[in-house]
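Technical note accompanying the year-one report. For the benefit of new consortium partners, we illustrate the data format agreed upon in the data management plan: each record pairs a sequence with a structure-token string. No post-processing was applied to the example shown here.
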Amino acid sequence: MKTNVLFIISLIVLAASFDTINQLLLKNSINSLGSNINSIKKVIVFIGKLLLIPQVWIGFFFCCLSLGIWLFVLSKADLNFAFCADSMHYIFIALASRFILKEKVGLWRWVGTASIIVGIILLTISNR
């Protein structure tokens, strides 16, 4: 590994945070339009309406920030380490789904999320 592991992890956390914000903004935008889509014409109208929602464009901005940070991470870290550590997305999305979107997250999903946390800790320890 070329760069300090904690620095890389912090950048991956930042990228995952920006991507989670992006996903939350996109999900709220989609939910605001409803989902009665059963033809190509309705798909086109749906996409047109979606592109008029400011949250979608703010989400794209956060997506670009996340991508920029991710590309920097890839330039500094081994791919196998970075990609495994990038599993933080699953943790952030589970937490955001439960506490921001008020979605139900079942026991087994929490068990899986805890397993990801343990895996990231082991990955970080093994790269010191």
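Partners are asked to follow this layout when depositing records. The two ends are 9 Å apart (CA to CA).
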